[in-house]
Amino acid sequence: MKTTDLRGKTAIVGVGLGGLPSAPNRSSMEIQTEAVHRALADAGLKPSDVDGLFTGSSHAFMPALSTAEYLGIRPKISDTTMIGGSSFIGHLLPAAMALQYGLCDVALICYGSNQGSGFGKLKSMSEPQTYEAPYDPRHPITSYALAAARHMYQFGTRREDLAEVAVAARRWAQLNPLAFARADLTIEQVMAARMVNDPLSTLDCCLVTDGGGALVLVRSERAKDFPKPPVYVLGAAMAHWHRQISSMPDLTVTAAAESGPRAFAMAGLRPADVDVVELYDAFTINTILFLEDLGFCAKGEGGAFVRDGRIAPGGSLAVNTNGGGLSCCHPGMYGIFLLIEAVQQLRGEAGARQVDNTHIALCHGNGGVLSSQVTALLGDESVL
Questions:
Q1: Terminal-to-terminal C-alpha distance of the chain
Q2: Where are the alpha helices (DSSP H) in 72-140?
Q3: CA distances from 245 to 49, 132, 286 (A)
Q4: Which residues are CB-neighbours of 126 under 8 A, at least 6 positions away?
Q5: Quick one: which of 272, 307, 313, 269 has its CA closest to 287?
Q6: Can you state the angle between helices 159-173 and 284-293, rounded to 10 degrees?
Q7: What is the pTM of this model?
Q8: CA 167 to each of CA 140, 178, 182: distance values in angstroms, whole numbers, following the listed order
Q9: Surface-to-core class of residue 153, CB atoms within 10 Å of its CB (0-12 exposed, 13-18 middle, 19+ buried)
Q10: pLDDT tens-digit profile of 56-85?
Q11: Under 8 Å CB-to-CB from 134, ≥6 apart: which residues?
């Protein structure tokens, strides 16, 4: 089987969010379960219908076992591949393969965390990196600051360009009633914010919030049996070249330069075909790097590309339409929220932030310190 054989064979028929914008006094499992029940209701299904489980956690030792027990389900196949915040976009391919080979009939991808109200703040790395631990970096900000500084040095990217990313995300968040941060934000405010790790200020960093998400997937031949318009998985690919930032071959080039072209090839699409772009913006530099590596602009031109509100509401490219990890939510692992926002856009259910004539969405997940990269292309029935 070639990857192109999987194009459009799997459909997302239910999505749900939980714990947004905050969920004090609730456990991660409770938040996840809220999202799962909403996704199942969205699909018109019951927990007992689920026989494939794909989940992950940064704090649970055996998340599939705990999740299945809590939900009262008995999956035939489970996958808890952990590659950081990109894990849930990464789950699309094994879920699609499991469905196509008859290993399950209803696949559930889910996540929940109370990081904002429960344990919050920065956590030291549970797996100290050999070549970095002696220098006591502030994980993970130091790594992203290193990439940002190199991009600025090599290509002339400005701090104002990073600020453009934060402001664009905030403007989208102001259209999203579930977004955590919705107050007005200017480039001047981002520039004047407290420096955390030069050149990144507090407003260049993602939020630390609660939140959960869930998606329900089936074989596309069943997709029209469900209440909502199906969203099809057109392409997906993952790549990772390093774990610690000191082993990254080039601080200005991520493995999205590999995952992106493979996902586009599987989908038979090009960047120019994409209507909405959902990128894992743990830090402002991420958006610039991924726009370059995924082919929306040339390497080194990302800073200029985002200027003058180009990726904000009303700009020429709709990027992170829910407000992203910078302004909507970031409960430790953000990738699942990219997929949910893309589905809502493709269904035409995004309310005030809805992008007109949306038929193709790109989701790109990031894990670790620019380490794991996963790209997915989703589309409605018109692009099958």
A1: 19
A2: 87-90, 92-100
A3: 42, 9, 14
A4: none
A5: 307
A6: 100
A7: 0.97
A8: 22, 18, 11
A9: exposed
A10: 998 788 999 999 999 999 999 999 999 999
A11: none
Give the span between the Cα atoms of 299 and 297, in whole angstroms.
Answer: 7
At 372, the pLDDT band (50, 70, 90 cuts) reads very high
- Are 50 and 43 a contacting pair, CB within 8 Å? no
**Secondary structure of residue 289 in the 3-state scheme:** helix
Contact of 254 with 137, CB cutoff 8 Å? no
Query: Look-up: residue for tokens 């809805």?
Result: 354
Among 205, 188, 145, CA closest to 325? 205
Q: Domains for the chain: give ranges and CATH numbers.
A: 3-120+207-383 (3.40.47.10)
Query: Is the CB of residue 49 less than 8 Å from the CB of residue 43?
Result: no
The residues near 43 (Cβ < 8 Å, ≥ 6 apart) are 13, 14, 216, 226, 227, 228
Please write the tens of the pLDDT for every residue from 293-307: 999 999 999 999 999
Name residue 19's amino acid.
Answer: G
Structure tokens at 43: 């699909």
DSSP alpha helices (H): ranges in the chain?
28-43, 63-71, 87-90, 92-100, 141-155, 159-173, 187-192, 256-267, 284-293, 302-305, 324-327, 335-347
12 strand-pairing partners:
217, 231
